[in-house]
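Supplementary material to the annual report.
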Amino acid sequence: MKQVDQKKAMKIIGFTLTIFILTVATHDGEFWPFSTYPMFSQAGNPWTRAMILDVSQQDEETFWQSHSLNERSTPTLSLRKYGVDQIDFSNFISKTDHWSDNRKNALFTLFKNDLLPDGKWMVVKVRGELVNKDSVHVRIQPFLLLTENGVVENPLLDDSFYFRGEN
Amino acid sequence: MNWTFPLASGLFEPKRDSSPGETLFFKLFEIFILCYTIKFSFEWAHYTQLRNVDVVLPLGVANYFDVSLFFDHYLSYLIAGSILIISIIAFFRKGPNWLYMVVMLLFHLLYVIRFSQGEIPHSQNLIGMSLLCFAIGLIWYPDKKYQPRFIIGSILFFIGLGYTTAFFAKLIGTGIHWFDSHHLWLWISEKSVDILSREGVYNPNFLQRLALTNSGIASMILLIGWFTEFIGFTLWWHRLRPYTTTLLIMMHIGITLSMNIRFDAFVYQLILIGYPWYRIFDLYLKKTPDWVIKTI
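Predicted assembly:
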């Protein structure tokens, strides 16, 4: 490459970089494939994920109660077996601010063909946080129950859990 | 002398003559990028058709129109099929020189359709950036002589930039104490829940157990990884490139072991682009193969 072509090459890279900066600056750091690569940039913050527990064999009196991850006595569903991406699922549950009928139907549609009659699958939010700055505490909050008839909200939680986002 | 010339010299190596091995490597690398582009396209199309119901998080162009209209009627497959056909035409350098740009736009569209569900994955970013560099390179450098050097150089520029940007994102987002061992504990616990949700069972591996019981080792894991990200920009200089590449690959292996996050496409691409493989080809090639000459 001659010097004149190097100059042209750097101009093209500079132009692409300008588009890169403009798009990520106006789209919260993400305009694929442009990215500021923010993963793990905010360390120490509490996190929320989601998973599904099979509570078919549990009493209704106990399966709505929140508990720590270590106290979990029910089996966890392998989402991979059902062809659902677990990160997508976690984000779907934790980033939904307003649990409208439409959003509940979307959740039900994901699993309705896999639920057995009398099967009860509990969608739980799992929240982890640093406690006393030296240990991690992980708590399970039962959130939505999937049955063959549809989706049921946790009666122990008030409406603000379903219509104002994260709690 | 322009201040960018030392950088351009590192990226494009103007004093080195092009060789048959370099040209052959360039086409093989193009095949690698296209294979991953087509693989991702059909995986995203399949998942979209099967699982996407509602837009949870609009990304990229999905901020400007409702991409849920692509969730049904096999429209996502139509996009993936178009990517496949146009990519093959562009690979053989048939048709106009902006075909890869069309593939890039379709690839972006398919990404924002598939990942409208809340997740923002980054493991496909290097493939996306490489495809973009091919698109730009074919438009601005249609001649055989400079095209491979520009495309590979620009890909290296954006890979190096990406890693160093990630370092600064952590410095700005958290501060100089980012490598505190407790942060790793929190991430290990988060990823353990992801694995539990994906597989139904989770057991920590040796490195995770070590990090969870020894805060010094946990901090050291984070610090070494963070430093490696910082020196990502040294990929821009060909003499340092193999050493930086080796460190980056080791960092990705460390991330996989400590946090169960796999970046397969990243690592394969680093292995291909970080080392001077063309020298091995040049040992056996007297001249550039005809099929390569016809397809640049």
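Residues 249 and 267 of chain B are 6 Å apart (CA to CA).
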